[in-house]
Specification:
With about 180 residues, the chain is mainly α. Helix content is about 80%, strand content about 0%. The protein has 8 helices and no strands.
Length: about 180
């Protein structure tokens, strides 16, 4: 946020508040993606009702979470409610597909997921350190230094992520394999 917007009218407080809201959305990023993958499993069977029913219940849960999170976290509570709701929606769709016998993970899928989780945790740790270890706001007068540091952080994270995947035996081809 600081590298892209912290110039001119955008203040340090604006950057902090926006970053906090993005963290709330980030909690549910996997859920948002998973819903886009899992819901078509129902649509392919001409079952539109099940994902819609789940979505309606999750919408109600989102509003209840807003009542809990907004007083505690302010505007970031809205984003967190949406993120958590996306995860609930995805888990519910996943369970529905499993119960209907429409999805069965291939053998070895859990090991694959754990390796990806390890690489993702490493990537997250590096980026988490960078978000707190570098004074992005304080570098406002040095935009090229901020851009360079951001590029270095992203490059380092990518190298560590893919390096960790390779070290655990995962190849990029495994991500593109068609079933």
């Amino acid at each position: 946020m600081a590298v892209l917007y912290h110039y001119g009218a955008i203040t340090a407080r604006d950057v902090e508040r926006t970053a906090t809201a993005l963290m709330g959305y980030g909690v549910g990023l996997l859920g948002l993606i998973a819903v886009k993958i899992l819901a078509p499993g129902f649509y392919a069977r001409q079952d539109i009702r099940t994902p819609v029913r789940i979505a309606i219940v999750v919408l109600a849960l989102t509003q209840l979470m807003n009542l809990l999170f907004v007083p505690l976290l302010g505007h970031a509570g809205l984003a967190l409610s949406i993120g958590v709701a996306a995860l609930i929606n995805a888990v519910w769709l996943f369970i529905g597909l499993r119960r209907a016998g429409l999805y069965r993970p291939e053998p070895g899928w859990l090991g694959f997921a754990l390796k990806v989780l390890l690489a993702t945790a490493l990537l997250g740790a590096v980026l988490g350190w960078a978000s707190h270890g570098i004074d992005w706001i304080g570098l406002r007068a040095q935009p090229w230094k901020r851009i360079g540091l951001l590029a270095a952080c992203l490059s380092t994270s990518a190298v560590l992520y893919f390096g960790c995947l390779m070290a655990t035996g995962i190849t990029l081809r495994q991500f593109t394999r068609r079933g």
